[in-house]
Specification:
442 residues, BirA Bifunctional Protein, domain 2, 12 helices, nine-stranded mixed beta sheet, alpha+beta, binds 5'-O-(N-(L-cysteinyl)-sulfamoyl)adenosine
Amino acid sequence: MYLSKLFIPILKETPSEAKIKSHQLMLRAGMIKQSSTGIYSWLPLGFKVMKKIEKIVREEQNKIGAQELLMPTIQSAEIWKESGRYDDYGEEMLRIKDRQGKEMLYGPTNEELITEIFRASVKSYKSLPQILYHIQWKFRDELRPRFGVMRCKEFFMKDAYSFDLDDEAAKKSYNKMFFAYLNTFKRLGLTAIPMAADTGPIGGDLSHEFVILAETGESKIYSDKRIFDIDINKYNNSDSSIEKLRKEYDNFYAVTDDKFNKNDFDKKVEKEKQLTTKGIEVGHIFYFGDKYSKPLNCSVDLQDGKKVNVKMGSYGIGVSRLVAAIIEAKYSNNVMKWPDQVSPFEVAVIPSLQKNDKSNYLKAEKIYNFLKDSNIDVLLDDTDEHLSAKFKKFDLIGIPHQIILGSKSTDNKLEFKEVNGKTENLSLEEIKNKLVNKRNIN
Ligand code: 5CA
Protein backbone atom coordinates (compact mmCIF):
# COMPACT_ATOMS: atom_id res chain seq x y z
CA MET A 1 0.00 0.00 0.00
CA TYR A 2 1.15 3.53 -0.86
CA LEU A 3 0.79 5.98 1.99
CA SER A 4 -0.54 8.66 -0.35
CA LYS A 5 -3.42 6.33 -1.32
CA LEU A 6 -4.21 5.11 2.20
CA PHE A 7 -7.53 6.35 3.53
CA ILE A 8 -6.30 7.47 6.91
CA PRO A 9 -7.90 10.64 8.26
CA ILE A 10 -5.35 11.55 10.93
CA LEU A 11 -6.48 14.12 13.52
CA LYS A 12 -4.01 16.74 14.69
CA GLU A 13 -5.68 17.31 18.04
CA THR A 14 -6.80 14.78 20.61
CA PRO A 15 -10.61 14.87 20.70
CA SER A 16 -11.75 16.03 24.13
CA GLU A 17 -14.42 13.34 24.46
CA ALA A 18 -11.78 10.58 24.49
CA LYS A 19 -10.81 9.87 28.09
CA ILE A 20 -8.44 6.92 27.73
CA LYS A 21 -5.34 6.46 25.62
CA SER A 22 -6.65 3.76 23.30
CA HIS A 23 -9.71 5.82 22.41
CA GLN A 24 -7.60 8.95 21.83
CA LEU A 25 -5.08 7.13 19.66
CA MET A 26 -7.68 5.23 17.65
CA LEU A 27 -9.44 8.48 16.79
CA ARG A 28 -6.21 10.36 16.10
CA ALA A 29 -4.79 7.64 13.86
CA GLY A 30 -8.03 7.48 11.87
CA MET A 31 -8.86 3.90 12.85
CA ILE A 32 -12.48 4.51 13.81
CA LYS A 33 -15.10 7.19 13.54
CA GLN A 34 -18.11 7.55 15.78
CA SER A 35 -21.36 7.53 13.85
CA SER A 36 -23.65 7.95 16.88
CA THR A 37 -23.32 7.36 20.62
CA GLY A 38 -21.57 4.03 21.14
CA ILE A 39 -21.66 3.15 17.44
CA TYR A 40 -18.55 3.31 15.28
CA SER A 41 -17.44 2.92 11.70
CA TRP A 42 -14.22 1.00 11.32
CA LEU A 43 -11.94 2.86 8.91
CA PRO A 44 -9.35 0.92 6.86
CA LEU A 45 -6.53 1.04 9.41
CA GLY A 46 -8.69 -0.02 12.36
CA PHE A 47 -10.50 -2.62 10.29
CA LYS A 48 -7.21 -4.14 9.18
CA VAL A 49 -6.06 -4.63 12.78
CA MET A 50 -9.43 -6.09 13.77
CA LYS A 51 -9.28 -8.56 10.85
CA LYS A 52 -5.82 -9.73 11.95
CA ILE A 53 -7.11 -10.30 15.48
CA GLU A 54 -10.15 -12.11 14.12
CA LYS A 55 -7.91 -14.44 12.11
CA ILE A 56 -5.93 -15.49 15.19
CA VAL A 57 -9.12 -15.99 17.20
CA ARG A 58 -10.53 -18.15 14.39
CA GLU A 59 -7.38 -20.26 14.04
CA GLU A 60 -7.36 -21.10 17.76
CA GLN A 61 -11.06 -22.02 17.71
CA ASN A 62 -10.50 -24.31 14.73
CA LYS A 63 -7.53 -25.92 16.49
CA ILE A 64 -9.78 -27.31 19.25
CA GLY A 65 -12.27 -28.62 16.71
CA ALA A 66 -14.85 -25.84 16.93
CA GLN A 67 -16.74 -25.30 13.66
CA GLU A 68 -17.55 -21.90 12.25
CA LEU A 69 -21.01 -20.91 11.05
CA LEU A 70 -22.74 -17.56 10.70
CA MET A 71 -25.98 -16.66 12.40
CA PRO A 72 -27.88 -13.47 11.57
CA THR A 73 -27.73 -10.28 13.62
CA ILE A 74 -31.53 -9.96 13.68
CA GLN A 75 -33.39 -12.61 15.68
CA SER A 76 -37.01 -13.46 16.29
CA ALA A 77 -38.35 -12.55 19.75
CA GLU A 78 -40.13 -15.92 19.92
CA ILE A 79 -37.16 -18.03 20.97
CA TRP A 80 -36.27 -15.48 23.64
CA LYS A 81 -39.78 -15.80 25.00
CA GLU A 82 -39.33 -19.56 25.09
CA SER A 83 -36.16 -19.27 27.16
CA GLY A 84 -37.69 -16.64 29.42
CA ARG A 85 -34.99 -14.07 28.71
CA TYR A 86 -37.08 -11.73 26.56
CA ASP A 87 -38.38 -9.85 29.59
CA ASP A 88 -35.33 -10.42 31.81
CA TYR A 89 -32.85 -8.87 29.38
CA GLY A 90 -34.39 -5.44 29.89
CA GLU A 91 -33.52 -2.23 28.13
CA GLU A 92 -30.13 -3.39 26.92
CA MET A 93 -31.91 -5.29 24.16
CA LEU A 94 -32.77 -3.39 21.00
CA ARG A 95 -36.29 -4.47 20.06
CA ILE A 96 -37.63 -3.98 16.57
CA LYS A 97 -40.81 -4.82 14.64
CA ASP A 98 -40.87 -5.86 11.00
CA ARG A 99 -43.56 -4.61 8.56
CA GLN A 100 -45.90 -7.42 9.60
CA GLY A 101 -45.61 -6.30 13.20
CA LYS A 102 -43.57 -9.36 14.14
CA GLU A 103 -41.35 -8.80 17.16
CA MET A 104 -37.66 -8.99 16.32
CA LEU A 105 -34.47 -7.96 18.07
CA TYR A 106 -30.85 -7.21 17.29
CA GLY A 107 -28.96 -10.09 18.94
CA PRO A 108 -26.98 -9.17 22.08
CA THR A 109 -25.84 -12.83 22.27
CA ASN A 110 -26.91 -16.12 20.66
CA GLU A 111 -27.66 -18.84 23.22
CA GLU A 112 -31.31 -19.12 22.11
CA LEU A 113 -30.66 -19.06 18.37
CA ILE A 114 -27.92 -21.68 18.46
CA THR A 115 -30.09 -23.91 20.68
CA GLU A 116 -32.90 -23.61 18.16
CA ILE A 117 -30.55 -24.57 15.31
CA PHE A 118 -29.24 -27.50 17.30
CA ARG A 119 -32.62 -28.89 18.38
CA ALA A 120 -33.85 -28.85 14.79
CA SER A 121 -30.83 -30.70 13.45
CA VAL A 122 -29.39 -33.04 16.04
CA LYS A 123 -31.38 -35.98 17.35
CA SER A 124 -28.91 -38.57 18.57
CA TYR A 125 -26.30 -38.74 21.31
CA LYS A 126 -23.94 -40.00 18.58
CA SER A 127 -23.61 -36.46 17.21
CA LEU A 128 -22.13 -35.14 20.46
CA PRO A 129 -19.89 -33.48 21.50
CA GLN A 130 -20.09 -30.45 19.26
CA ILE A 131 -18.73 -26.91 19.42
CA LEU A 132 -20.07 -24.26 17.04
CA TYR A 133 -19.01 -20.63 16.82
CA HIS A 134 -19.43 -17.49 14.81
CA ILE A 135 -17.84 -14.06 14.66
CA GLN A 136 -20.59 -11.52 14.28
CA TRP A 137 -21.79 -8.06 15.29
CA LYS A 138 -23.77 -7.78 18.50
CA PHE A 139 -25.87 -4.93 19.81
CA ARG A 140 -26.36 -3.99 23.45
CA ASP A 141 -28.00 -0.71 24.28
CA GLU A 142 -25.46 0.00 27.02
CA LEU A 143 -26.60 2.59 29.57
CA ARG A 144 -23.20 4.28 29.57
CA PRO A 145 -21.21 3.50 26.45
CA ARG A 146 -17.68 4.80 26.98
CA PHE A 147 -14.01 4.52 26.14
CA GLY A 148 -14.65 4.17 22.41
CA VAL A 149 -14.91 0.60 21.19
CA MET A 150 -14.07 -0.69 24.66
CA ARG A 151 -17.66 -0.42 25.84
CA CYS A 152 -19.92 0.44 22.95
CA LYS A 153 -23.36 -0.50 21.69
CA GLU A 154 -22.46 -2.33 18.51
CA PHE A 155 -19.41 -4.56 18.79
CA PHE A 156 -17.79 -7.53 17.08
CA MET A 157 -17.73 -10.74 19.11
CA LYS A 158 -16.62 -14.31 18.70
CA ASP A 159 -19.21 -16.46 20.44
CA ALA A 160 -18.95 -20.23 20.68
CA TYR A 161 -21.42 -22.76 22.05
CA SER A 162 -20.69 -26.30 23.22
CA PHE A 163 -23.11 -29.24 23.32
CA ASP A 164 -22.45 -32.35 25.41
CA LEU A 165 -24.26 -35.34 26.83
CA ASP A 166 -23.44 -34.92 30.50
CA ASP A 167 -21.71 -32.61 32.98
CA GLU A 168 -18.44 -34.46 32.83
CA ALA A 169 -18.15 -34.25 29.03
CA ALA A 170 -19.31 -30.62 29.13
CA LYS A 171 -16.51 -29.71 31.57
CA LYS A 172 -14.05 -31.12 29.03
CA SER A 173 -15.42 -28.78 26.37
CA TYR A 174 -15.20 -25.90 28.87
CA ASN A 175 -11.58 -26.75 29.62
CA LYS A 176 -10.70 -27.00 25.92
CA MET A 177 -12.02 -23.52 25.42
CA PHE A 178 -10.14 -22.34 28.52
CA PHE A 179 -6.96 -23.65 26.86
CA ALA A 180 -7.82 -22.10 23.47
CA TYR A 181 -8.40 -18.72 25.14
CA LEU A 182 -5.02 -18.72 26.87
CA ASN A 183 -3.34 -19.54 23.54
CA THR A 184 -5.35 -16.93 21.64
CA PHE A 185 -4.44 -14.11 24.00
CA LYS A 186 -0.82 -15.21 24.13
CA ARG A 187 -0.62 -15.09 20.32
CA LEU A 188 -2.06 -11.58 20.50
CA GLY A 189 0.85 -10.61 22.74
CA LEU A 190 -1.31 -10.38 25.87
CA THR A 191 -1.18 -12.00 29.30
CA ALA A 192 -4.82 -12.70 30.05
CA ILE A 193 -5.61 -14.24 33.41
CA PRO A 194 -8.75 -16.35 33.92
CA MET A 195 -10.65 -15.08 36.95
CA ALA A 196 -13.60 -16.83 38.56
CA ALA A 197 -16.53 -14.57 37.73
CA ASP A 198 -20.23 -13.99 38.10
CA THR A 199 -22.48 -15.22 35.30
CA GLY A 200 -24.89 -12.23 35.04
CA PRO A 201 -27.62 -12.45 32.40
CA ILE A 202 -26.04 -15.49 30.69
CA GLY A 203 -26.55 -17.67 33.78
CA GLY A 204 -25.03 -20.90 35.10
CA ASP A 205 -22.70 -21.61 37.99
CA LEU A 206 -19.25 -21.89 36.42
CA SER A 207 -17.63 -18.95 34.69
CA HIS A 208 -14.27 -17.28 34.05
CA GLU A 209 -13.49 -13.81 32.85
CA PHE A 210 -10.20 -13.46 30.96
CA VAL A 211 -8.70 -10.21 32.10
CA ILE A 212 -5.61 -8.26 31.05
CA LEU A 213 -4.13 -5.81 33.51
CA ALA A 214 -4.72 -2.14 32.75
CA GLU A 215 -5.28 0.88 34.96
CA THR A 216 -8.18 1.96 32.76
CA GLY A 217 -9.91 -1.42 33.03
CA GLU A 218 -13.46 -1.65 34.33
CA SER A 219 -13.04 -5.00 36.11
CA LYS A 220 -11.66 -4.99 39.63
CA ILE A 221 -9.62 -8.10 40.28
CA TYR A 222 -8.08 -9.86 43.26
CA SER A 223 -5.47 -12.50 42.73
CA ASP A 224 -2.44 -14.39 43.86
CA LYS A 225 0.49 -12.85 41.97
CA ARG A 226 1.92 -16.26 41.17
CA ILE A 227 -0.89 -16.96 38.70
CA PHE A 228 0.98 -14.70 36.25
CA ASP A 229 3.96 -17.05 36.25
CA ILE A 230 2.12 -20.10 34.93
CA ASP A 231 3.78 -21.29 31.74
CA ILE A 232 1.11 -22.53 29.32
CA ASN A 233 3.76 -23.82 26.91
CA LYS A 234 4.16 -26.90 29.12
CA TYR A 235 0.71 -28.05 28.10
CA ASN A 236 -0.67 -29.59 24.92
CA ASN A 237 -4.22 -30.03 23.70
CA SER A 238 -4.80 -33.58 24.99
CA ASP A 239 -7.65 -33.88 27.51
CA SER A 240 -5.32 -34.96 30.31
CA SER A 241 -2.87 -32.12 29.71
CA ILE A 242 -5.66 -29.56 29.58
CA GLU A 243 -7.06 -30.92 32.84
CA LYS A 244 -3.68 -30.41 34.52
CA LEU A 245 -3.56 -26.86 33.19
CA ARG A 246 -6.99 -26.16 34.67
CA LYS A 247 -5.85 -27.57 38.01
CA GLU A 248 -2.75 -25.38 38.00
CA TYR A 249 -4.88 -22.27 37.50
CA ASP A 250 -7.39 -23.42 40.12
CA ASN A 251 -4.56 -23.59 42.68
CA PHE A 252 -4.36 -19.82 42.77
CA TYR A 253 -6.92 -17.39 44.07
CA ALA A 254 -8.09 -15.13 41.20
CA VAL A 255 -11.54 -13.58 41.21
CA THR A 256 -13.42 -10.54 39.95
CA ASP A 257 -15.23 -8.08 42.17
CA ASP A 258 -18.55 -9.98 42.34
CA LYS A 259 -16.87 -13.10 43.70
CA PHE A 260 -14.51 -11.33 46.09
CA ASN A 261 -14.47 -12.30 49.73
CA LYS A 262 -11.86 -10.62 51.92
CA ASN A 263 -11.67 -13.42 54.48
CA ASP A 264 -11.08 -15.99 51.77
CA PHE A 265 -8.45 -13.81 50.10
CA ASP A 266 -6.51 -13.32 53.36
CA LYS A 267 -6.82 -16.99 54.27
CA LYS A 268 -5.67 -18.32 50.87
CA VAL A 269 -3.04 -15.75 49.85
CA GLU A 270 -0.21 -14.38 51.99
CA LYS A 271 -0.20 -10.60 52.19
CA GLU A 272 2.88 -10.07 49.99
CA LYS A 273 1.49 -12.31 47.27
CA GLN A 274 -1.83 -10.48 47.07
CA LEU A 275 -2.58 -8.42 43.97
CA THR A 276 -5.54 -6.05 43.89
CA THR A 277 -5.82 -4.16 40.65
CA LYS A 278 -7.91 -3.38 37.58
CA GLY A 279 -8.19 -5.06 34.24
CA ILE A 280 -9.98 -5.24 30.92
CA GLU A 281 -12.26 -8.20 30.29
CA VAL A 282 -11.34 -9.52 26.84
CA GLY A 283 -13.14 -12.85 27.07
CA HIS A 284 -15.76 -14.59 29.19
CA ILE A 285 -16.74 -18.24 29.32
CA PHE A 286 -19.78 -19.87 30.93
CA TYR A 287 -21.05 -23.32 31.76
CA PHE A 288 -24.81 -23.43 32.33
CA GLY A 289 -25.86 -27.05 31.75
CA ASP A 290 -29.48 -27.21 30.60
CA LYS A 291 -30.44 -23.59 31.33
CA TYR A 292 -31.42 -23.09 27.65
CA SER A 293 -31.79 -26.64 26.36
CA LYS A 294 -34.54 -27.40 28.91
CA PRO A 295 -36.98 -24.53 28.22
CA LEU A 296 -36.22 -24.71 24.49
CA ASN A 297 -36.63 -28.47 24.57
CA CYS A 298 -33.34 -29.32 22.93
CA SER A 299 -32.66 -33.00 23.58
CA VAL A 300 -31.01 -36.05 22.06
CA ASP A 301 -32.03 -39.73 22.13
CA LEU A 302 -29.87 -42.00 24.23
CA GLN A 303 -29.00 -45.60 23.33
CA ASP A 304 -31.85 -46.93 25.49
CA GLY A 305 -34.40 -44.66 23.82
CA LYS A 306 -34.60 -42.13 26.68
CA LYS A 307 -34.23 -38.44 25.92
CA VAL A 308 -31.84 -36.08 27.64
CA ASN A 309 -31.43 -32.31 27.42
CA VAL A 310 -28.00 -31.42 26.08
CA LYS A 311 -25.55 -29.67 28.40
CA MET A 312 -24.31 -26.36 27.08
CA GLY A 313 -21.67 -23.71 27.61
CA SER A 314 -21.00 -20.42 25.86
CA TYR A 315 -17.72 -18.66 25.22
CA GLY A 316 -17.20 -15.05 24.14
CA ILE A 317 -14.24 -13.00 22.99
CA GLY A 318 -14.57 -9.25 22.39
CA VAL A 319 -12.83 -9.04 19.02
CA SER A 320 -13.43 -5.30 18.51
CA ARG A 321 -12.68 -4.56 22.19
CA LEU A 322 -9.34 -6.34 21.75
CA VAL A 323 -8.14 -3.68 19.31
CA ALA A 324 -8.42 -1.08 22.08
CA ALA A 325 -7.24 -3.51 24.78
CA ILE A 326 -4.01 -4.24 22.91
CA ILE A 327 -3.34 -0.50 22.59
CA GLU A 328 -3.98 0.00 26.33
CA ALA A 329 -1.64 -2.86 27.21
CA LYS A 330 1.19 -1.83 24.88
CA TYR A 331 1.31 1.90 24.22
CA SER A 332 4.09 4.13 25.51
CA ASN A 333 4.63 7.87 25.18
CA ASN A 334 1.59 8.38 22.96
CA VAL A 335 2.77 5.74 20.51
CA MET A 336 0.85 2.60 19.64
CA LYS A 337 3.11 -0.43 19.93
CA TRP A 338 1.43 -3.12 17.92
CA PRO A 339 2.66 -6.68 18.26
CA ASP A 340 3.88 -7.78 14.79
CA GLN A 341 1.06 -10.24 14.25
CA VAL A 342 -1.73 -7.64 14.48
CA SER A 343 0.05 -4.50 13.35
CA PRO A 344 -1.76 -2.68 10.51
CA PHE A 345 1.47 -3.08 8.49
CA GLU A 346 4.53 -5.14 9.29
CA VAL A 347 7.05 -2.67 7.92
CA ALA A 348 7.21 0.81 6.41
CA VAL A 349 9.68 1.86 3.71
CA ILE A 350 10.56 5.49 4.28
CA PRO A 351 12.76 7.29 1.72
CA SER A 352 14.15 10.72 2.52
CA LEU A 353 13.60 13.46 0.00
CA GLN A 354 16.39 14.53 -2.28
CA LYS A 355 15.55 17.51 -4.41
CA ASN A 356 15.59 16.83 -8.15
CA ASP A 357 16.77 13.30 -7.53
CA LYS A 358 14.20 10.56 -7.90
CA SER A 359 16.69 7.74 -7.45
CA ASN A 360 16.07 7.33 -3.72
CA TYR A 361 12.36 7.03 -4.30
CA LEU A 362 12.86 4.50 -7.12
CA LYS A 363 15.05 2.46 -4.79
CA ALA A 364 12.30 2.56 -2.15
CA GLU A 365 9.77 1.37 -4.71
CA LYS A 366 11.99 -1.60 -5.64
CA ILE A 367 12.32 -2.58 -1.97
CA TYR A 368 8.58 -2.20 -1.55
CA ASN A 369 7.83 -4.48 -4.52
CA PHE A 370 10.29 -7.10 -3.35
CA LEU A 371 8.73 -7.25 0.13
CA LYS A 372 5.23 -7.23 -1.28
CA ASP A 373 6.09 -10.16 -3.55
CA SER A 374 7.39 -11.96 -0.45
CA ASN A 375 3.92 -11.59 1.10
CA ILE A 376 4.99 -9.04 3.65
CA ASP A 377 2.43 -6.44 4.61
CA VAL A 378 4.38 -3.32 3.67
CA LEU A 379 3.59 0.39 3.48
CA LEU A 380 5.56 2.72 1.19
CA ASP A 381 5.79 6.34 2.19
CA ASP A 382 5.56 8.05 -1.20
CA THR A 383 4.65 11.45 0.23
CA ASP A 384 6.99 14.40 -0.09
CA GLU A 385 7.05 15.36 3.57
CA HIS A 386 10.29 15.73 5.49
CA LEU A 387 11.64 12.74 7.37
CA SER A 388 10.79 14.21 10.77
CA ALA A 389 7.13 14.67 9.78
CA LYS A 390 7.07 11.15 8.34
CA PHE A 391 8.42 9.65 11.57
CA LYS A 392 5.72 11.38 13.57
CA LYS A 393 3.07 9.80 11.40
CA PHE A 394 4.58 6.32 11.68
CA ASP A 395 4.87 6.74 15.43
CA LEU A 396 1.18 7.49 15.55
CA ILE A 397 0.21 4.52 13.42
CA GLY A 398 2.62 2.34 15.39
CA ILE A 399 4.21 0.24 12.65
CA PRO A 400 6.80 -1.97 14.39
CA HIS A 401 9.56 -1.86 11.72
CA GLN A 402 10.94 0.82 9.43
CA ILE A 403 13.38 0.72 6.53
CA ILE A 404 14.81 4.21 6.36
CA LEU A 405 16.46 5.31 3.15
CA GLY A 406 18.46 8.23 4.46
CA SER A 407 22.12 8.98 5.09
CA LYS A 408 22.65 5.74 7.05
CA SER A 409 21.57 3.41 4.23
CA THR A 410 24.00 2.30 1.53
CA ASP A 411 23.23 0.38 -1.66
CA ASN A 412 23.55 -3.02 -0.01
CA LYS A 413 22.92 -2.32 3.62
CA LEU A 414 19.71 -0.66 4.65
CA GLU A 415 18.90 1.08 7.90
CA PHE A 416 16.37 -1.20 9.58
CA LYS A 417 14.73 0.08 12.75
CA GLU A 418 12.76 -2.03 15.17
CA VAL A 419 10.57 0.45 16.95
CA ASN A 420 10.75 -1.57 20.19
CA GLY A 421 14.40 -2.48 19.81
CA LYS A 422 17.57 -1.75 17.98
CA THR A 423 18.53 -0.21 14.64
CA GLU A 424 20.76 -2.29 12.37
CA ASN A 425 22.17 -2.14 8.86
CA LEU A 426 20.97 -5.21 6.98
CA SER A 427 20.62 -6.45 3.44
CA LEU A 428 17.12 -6.64 2.00
CA GLU A 429 17.24 -10.43 2.10
CA GLU A 430 18.18 -10.35 5.79
CA ILE A 431 15.33 -7.94 6.50
CA LYS A 432 12.85 -10.18 4.71
CA ASN A 433 14.00 -13.25 6.66
CA LYS A 434 13.82 -11.36 9.92
CA LEU A 435 10.24 -10.25 9.27
CA VAL A 436 9.11 -13.72 8.19
CA ASN A 437 10.77 -15.34 11.21
CA LYS A 438 9.19 -12.88 13.63
CA ARG A 439 5.81 -13.68 12.19
CA ASN A 440 6.42 -17.42 12.60
CA ILE A 441 7.48 -17.09 16.23
CA ASN A 442 4.16 -15.48 17.00
N1 5CA B 1 -22.91 -15.28 25.42
C1 5CA B 1 -21.78 -15.00 26.24
C2 5CA B 1 -20.59 -15.73 25.79
S1 5CA B 1 -20.56 -15.98 24.09
C3 5CA B 1 -21.54 -13.50 26.29
O1 5CA B 1 -22.21 -12.74 25.63
N2 5CA B 1 -20.57 -13.08 27.10
S2 5CA B 1 -20.20 -11.58 27.45
O2 5CA B 1 -21.36 -10.81 27.69
O3 5CA B 1 -19.26 -11.62 28.52
O4 5CA B 1 -19.49 -10.95 26.20
C4 5CA B 1 -18.34 -11.55 25.66
C5 5CA B 1 -17.23 -10.55 25.42
O5 5CA B 1 -17.69 -9.51 24.56
C6 5CA B 1 -16.78 -9.80 26.68
O6 5CA B 1 -15.81 -10.55 27.39
C7 5CA B 1 -16.21 -8.52 26.11
O7 5CA B 1 -14.86 -8.73 25.72
C8 5CA B 1 -17.07 -8.29 24.89
N3 5CA B 1 -18.09 -7.26 25.16
C9 5CA B 1 -19.21 -7.39 25.91
N4 5CA B 1 -19.92 -6.25 25.96
C10 5CA B 1 -19.24 -5.35 25.18
C11 5CA B 1 -19.45 -3.98 24.83
N5 5CA B 1 -20.52 -3.31 25.25
N6 5CA B 1 -18.54 -3.38 24.02
C12 5CA B 1 -17.46 -4.06 23.57
N7 5CA B 1 -17.21 -5.34 23.86
C13 5CA B 1 -18.08 -5.99 24.67
